[in-house]
Amino acid sequence: MTTAGTPVEDNTGKACSADYISLLKPRVMSLVVFTALVGLVVAPVAVNPLLGALAILCIAVGGGASGALNMWYDADIDRVMKRTRSRPIPAGLMTHNEVLAFGLVLSACSVFTMGVFINWFSALFLAFTIFFYAVVYTIWLKRSTPQNIVIGGAAGAFPPMIGWAAATGGISAESIVLFLIIFLWTPPHFWALSLFVKTDYEAAKIPMMANVRGEQSTKLQSFAYAVLMALCGVAPWFMGFAGAVYGVASAVLGLVFVLFAWRMWRASAGELTIRAAKKLFFFSLVYLSSVFGVLLVETLLRRWLGF
């Protein structure tokens, strides 16, 4: 096999435990686990701590399985993009079939365990999420439309709903709001990234918004999504399942996010846009972790203190 014309050494069989862990996309999994935990804890039904931990483990394994299946299908473009060339298949450490089997086994185990020990609604929701990410996003949308991140982003927004379903056996308006916060956060987060790794996506022929519609359209749409996300971010407060601390924190964080998105939209093309995009990208990570973190801590404190 080759990587952009350069022979790749065949190291098949030399994979170590770290390579299998990398298939799970641990950084992405950490976000999946955290938001699922928030959904589980914020839900109005108390869960046995051991069962709750098992539910989060199943969601983590299912999320990791999605990452492995994504790497199995995307191995050809991973060889082209600089930031993905060291993944197990492009590096020659594993075969396509090994990665596919790994992803399918983890998917089946996570869904079956979730169904037997938690509830079958959350298990089927987890199965749907794996299918959505691996098939709808990876196989269908990613290479066919600049709206890939918008539609496919739903897969990354489902975990808090699955956590909520693990606790309650269903979904509700509150869990949908948690979904919407991540869903609306995803486009400005990834479009900001695409603006400063644009050549990688071009080389891989992935139709990201910046490559297909241009910088200005991407920046304008990112700003629009940022405004919607900021408004949705304060919804838990207005709906009554978050307190004033969350309300103030989410409002301030949302305003800062919108400010970064506005600066990126108004920045001149070239180096100024890249700088603004990097600032928005990195703050977007702060925003999501902070909003869900405040909601988690506030919920726990309110329960422990009895108010």
Automatic annotation (TrEMBL):
InterPro entries: Protohaem_IX_farnesylTrfase, UbiA_prenyltransferase, UbiA_prenylTrfase_CS, UbiA_sf. Its EC number is 2.5.1.141. It catalyses: heme b + (2E,6E)-farnesyl diphosphate + H2O = Fe(II)-heme o + diphosphate. Pathway: Porphyrin-containing compound metabolism; heme O biosynthesis; heme O from protoheme: step 1/1. The keyword Transmembrane applies. Coiled coil: none annotated. GO terms for molecular function: protoheme IX farnesyltransferase activity. Converts heme B (protoheme IX) to heme O by substitution of the vinyl group on carbon 2 of heme B porphyrin ring with a hydroxyethyl farnesyl side group. This is Protoheme IX farnesyltransferase. It comes from Candidatus Tokpelaia hoelldobleri.
